[in-house]
Specification:
Layout lengths: L2 H8 L30 E6 L7 H16 L4 E4 L13 H6 L3 H5 L4 E3 L12 H4 L11 E5 L2 E5 L8 H14 L4 E5 L14 H14 L3 E4 L5 E4 L6 E5 L14 E5 L3 E7 L3 E8 L4 E8 L1
Parallel strand pairs: 1-2, 2-3, 5-6, 6-7, 7-9
Antiparallel strand pairs: 1-11, 4-5, 8-9, 8-10, 11-12, 12-13
Length: 289
């Protein structure tokens, strides 16, 4: 597929944004290659995307081109899917149009609710929106050798039900990799910072049940921690806009740049890469099982 076709399908041709061309090709790039056929696959994570403006569209365009060269099986959206108030009437501008090319390739998106998403009808409209693939305010699904656990981390989350559910499902999981994602960070050097409440609530469970990766948004930056009690924490909240980010003792890499993350799944390791708006791979690391 030629670049002009990618631009046309993505609906971004009028933005005048250049596409990069330096991704190494991963195998055959036929239409169905993103379907999982073995234990190894790739997925993408990004969050705080729902602006519908040039920042989101530029990152979506880069995802389109990345997919053409290195197909991915699914996308995790880490909340704040629709700004400013989560109104489902804006879903076409903030989800349908930006990711139209990926929708046409039948790449599934899996969303969680952010704090902006619950401002309208407490997020119920988004939970019921089929293309977000939410089976509730918290849910689990399995792809290949990974079991994903989606959490509602908002202030009004029903932890009295959610924590027993999480314990039960983590304990029962036979997956090689256990990946949890939610909107709010546990550990963050960004504007919102770390959450002592979520650390106290969730990190002991992650350690007890062997969660290797937690992915979140909320802070509009990219940050990857060193493993903390066996869990790597990955902030992917710069899918449309950015804020400054610092570093902490446990920070492995941080950057205030529009970006998304790719995670390659192998039986021995997860390979995490941070991808910028210019297609640059600005961070790369492996998490070993």
């Amino acid at each position: 597929m030629k670049r002009r076709d990618i631009l046309r399908l993505g609906g971004l041709g009028g933005l005048g944004l250049a596409l990069s061309s330096h991704y190494p090709v991963w195998g055959n790039t036929s239409q169905n290659d993103h379907q999982i056929s073995s234990s190894s696959f790739r997925f993408v994570a990004l969050g705080d995307v729902g602006t519908g403006d040039i920042g989101q569209l530029a990152i979506a365009q880069e995802m389109n081109f990345y997919f053409q060269q290195r197909p991915f099986a699914l996308v995790l959206m880490t909340g704040d899917n629709i700004y400013e108030d989560g109104e489902i009437e804006r879903v076409g501008a903030t989800f349908g149009r930006p990711y139209r090319f990926l929708h046409q390739q039948e790449v599934p998106f899996y969303a969680v609710l952010g704090n902006h998403d619950i401002r309208t009808n407490n997020g119920v409209d988004q939970v019921n929106y089929s293309a977000f693939n939410m089976q509730g305010r918290y849910y689990s699904f399995t792809k290949g050798i990974v079991q994903f656990f989606a959490l509602d981390t908002n202030d009004n989350a029903d932890w009295s039900q959610q924590i027993p559910w999480l314990k039960q499902n983590l304990a029962a999981s036979k997956a090689t990799w256990k990946i949890v994602f939610g909107h709010h960070p546990l550990y963050s050097s960004g504007a919102h910072g770390s959450s002592s409440e979520l650390i106290e609530l969730l990190s002991p469970l992650f350690a007890q049940y062997g969660v290797q990766l937690y992915v979140n948004g909320h802070d509009h930056d990219y940050e990857r921690t060193e493993a903390i009690d066996g869990t790597t924490y990955l902030t992917c909240g710069a899918g449309a806009k950015t804020r400054p980010v610092g570093t902490s003792d446990w920070t492995a890499y941080s950057a205030a740049r529009l970006s998304f993350a790719t995670i390659d799944v192998d039986s021995e390791y997860l390979e995490i890469q941070g991808i910028g708006i210019d297609g640059e791979v600005f961070d790369s690391a492996r998490v070993f099982n």
